[in-house]
Amino acid sequence: MLNVKVRRSTMAEMARSEITINLGALRRNVTHLSAVAEGSELWAVVKANAYGHGAADCGDTALAAGATALCVATVGEGLALRRELPEPRIIVLGPSSNREVAQARDARLELVVSGDIPPDIPVHLKLDTGMGRWGMSELVRPDLDVVGLMTHFATADDDLDFAQVQLGRFLEATAEYTHLTRHVANSAGLLRLPEARLDAVRCGIAIYGLSPFQTDPADDGLEPVLSWHSELGLVKQLQPGDSAGYGRRFIAAEPTWIGIVPVGYADGFRRNLTGTTVLVDGEPRRVVGTVSMDAFAVELPGPLPQGTPVTLVGPGVPLEAHARHAGTINYELATQLETGSERARRVLLYS
Ligand SMILES: *Cc1c(COP(=O)(O)O)cnc(C)c1O
User: Fold this and answer.
1) Residue 246: its pLDDT value, please?
2) Catalytic residue ranges
């Protein structure tokens, strides 16, 4: 039998968790990155709902801070964003079907094209210089509606030599067309490869204050925009031999206090975050047992009150650390948060 000590019940009226988006931090990141870009335009990449941060709010803030265009992945994302933001340039980075081209034209989007050039819509031609995904292998002669030429780095976050090779191929292929906007760099390229800045940089992860190198964002002058908080929903003591979570992955060796946090993998707190660290009342504590769909358990030093604040992501518990723990990258964790965000209350902050 578990020796369950229920303390106080407040969770019923509360959101299970709260995601705070600090648009002030986003503004500072964009200002900083624009300064790094030194005269080349900064385009804010807000695909995948701004990496889970909220596309319209982040896009609007980035533009106010000096970004000159927004980039999305699909025409669908572009149409949704256009409904919120009637003015700015919106560039669709991914491929589009014929039907989508017509919709994009009506919504005044710009398209990235790797094959036939559709008429009456501004397009950016994409060259495959080594990414081995979308992109044309040879540049067809750009005609009237072509406004930009681009390529995308495969390795700007770890292999700068290969990024240099890609840049060299791109510069050679586009040398005749310097009157068009040439854009190559993503966040890592902007931060590590100054010669890749060209006319515009397409900056995603860094504007959210996350590191493209999976290191401390502060090393590159960046400040995380997102933080995620919850609280202890239940506090109890396990007796030796008692377990927490599915599969009995954690079995108490001695009397152990644990707290149950009402956040699970359906909220975007991944199942393989077992063993990672969160802050309970500001102190680092270990996530124990298997993370389930709707909850996880955290080891406590003693019988803390129910309702004690828990920081899942924030100062001291960066997304990069969770990503390392889960064997993935901050990009994936951030975009997956979006999936679960209907359960979380989202709060916008401007500080
Ligand atoms: C997503 C994306 C970017 C932004 O990359 P970050 O590493 O997040 O800065 C830039 N260009 C293209 C084509 C992309 O798909």
Assistant:
1) 78
2) 47, 246
